[in-house]
Task: structure prediction
Amino acid sequence: MKNTYKIFTLIISTLLVFSCSDLEEDRSGILSLDNLQSEADLVAALVPVYKRLQYSYRNPHFMRTNTFGSDDITTWWGGNKAPLRVFDSFNYGGGENGDINWLDYDWKGFWKMIYHANSLVEGLKTSTADQELKSVADGEARFLRAFAYLQLVREHGNMPIILDGMTPTGDEERATVLENYQHIEADLLIAEANLPAPGSTANVGRASSAAAKTLLADLYLTWAGWPVKDNSKNSLAASKAKEVIDMGYHSLLPIDQLWLLENSNSRESVFSVQFSKEEDQRNGHPAATSFHMARGWSDMYPELQFFKDFPEGPRKEATFVTQIPNRGFAGGKIITKNPPTIEWSVSQRFHPMYGKFTASEDLTVVGRTMGYRSIEIYRYAEVLLIYAEAKAASGALDASALDALNQVKRRAAGLDPNTPNATVDVSSASVQDIIDEKGWELAGEHKRWFDLVRTETLESAILKRDPDEQVPLVRQPGKAQYISPIPAEAIATSKLVQNPQGFKIQ
Result:
C-alpha cells in the first residue's frame, strides 16, 4: 500500500479543480462502483466520501454552524453573520427557521457523505479486489458514515437510518436516538477491526483503527449523557480511549508547536481534514480557512466570560489573539501602520480572536489571509480527556485517569506532559473539572456545544455570559435549543416534518 497515498492525493487533487457548483453535485465517484477490481479503484471510490468531509470543513462560517451558542464561540455583532447570530442568541425553533440559511450547508454535507459511503459499502460486496484491501476500504466508509450520522443526530435529533444510498425524503420513519447510536456503534466496531493501526501506512489523513476507537469513545460518552443517559456507556468510553492510549503511537506536542503548519499530521493528530495550497480552491484563491482583518478567526470569538475564565499561561497565549495587527494589503504585503497593533478591547470588534491555525497563514493572497493547515477533528489531548472524564463519571478515577488529565494540564502550562509536576498536577478531579479542562483545551474546535448539551449544563454556562456581549440573547436556552431545526430547504423539498417546538427526542 506504499503508493496508496500518492494515488489518493492525485485523485482528490483532480476532483478539487471543479468549481463550487461542481462540488455541490452528487457524484458517486470517478468509476463504476459495481466494478471495483484494483487498489486504485478502491482509493478512487473513497475519494468522494473524504471530499465531502473536506468541503464541509473548509469554511469556518459553515463549520458546525449548530455549535454557535456555546460559551466558547460567539460571533461579530455586525456584518453578514445574521445566520450565525440566530444560534448565538438562541433565536431559533419557531418561525425563524427560514432565516438559518447556513444550516442547510451542514445538513447537505453530511447526507452526501452518507450517500457516498453507502454506495461504496454496497459496491464492495461484489468487488473482486484483494480481500484485505476491501476490508480497509469498508472500514473507512463505515467510519466516515458513522461520523456523519453522529454529527446529524447530535445536531438534529432523530434521524432516519438510510443504507441504500439515498438522502431523506420524509417517507422514512425517523429512528430513535438510541437506534441511531446502535447503528453508529455497529459501523465503528467493524471499522476498528478492519482499519490499520496509526502510523502503519503512509496514508496521511485517512482513518486508522485509533480514529475508529476515538470516535467510539466519543459516541459512548455522548450515549451516557442527554438524551439517552445510559451511564453504563461511560466505562465503554474509558475502555476505548485507553486502547488508543495503550497503542503508544499518539503523543502531545509542546504547546508552542501545536498549531504550526509544519506540525500538521503530527502524532497528536488522531484524525484530521487535509488541505494544501496545490489542492484547495475557494473563491479563486487557494485556501482551507480564511482569517479576516487580523491574525485570527475574526468571525469566531469566545464569549468574554469564557475568555476571562480561561486559565492564564502558554495555552491561552496559543489559543487567542489579543493584539490585532492593523494591516492592509498591497501585493500581499503587510503595510505597517501606526500603531502596528490594536488591543482587542479597543478594536472594532471588542473581542479576542481565535489564533489556532494562524501559523499556517499565507499573506500572498490580496485582501485575505489563508490557512492550509489540516483541521483537527480528533486530537490525542481529547482522547486523554475523554478517558479521564469517563473514568470519573463511572466512579473509577484512578491514577491512570488522573495522569491523563495531568498530561493535558502540564502541556497547557508549557511543561513536559510526561513529567509529574507538583505545581500543576491534581490529585483529584470532579467530572465538571474535567469538562472545564476539555472546554479550554478544545476551545473553538466545535466540541464545547456537544459537551454542554450532553451534560445538560448549557443553561448554567450561558448564565455566566458577560453583559458586555455584543450579541444579546433573544431567549434563554433550554431543552428546546438542545438540537437544531431541520433546514427549511430540506423541509420544502421533501416530506420531512420539522422538529416540533421543544424538539421531542425519543
In short: The domain at 1-189+457-506 is CATH 1.25.40.390 (Serine Threonine Protein Phosphatase 5, Tetratricopeptide repeat). The first strand starts at residue 269 and ends at 273. The CA atoms of residues 70 and 187 lie 29 Å apart. DSSP finds 17 helices and eleven strands in the chain.
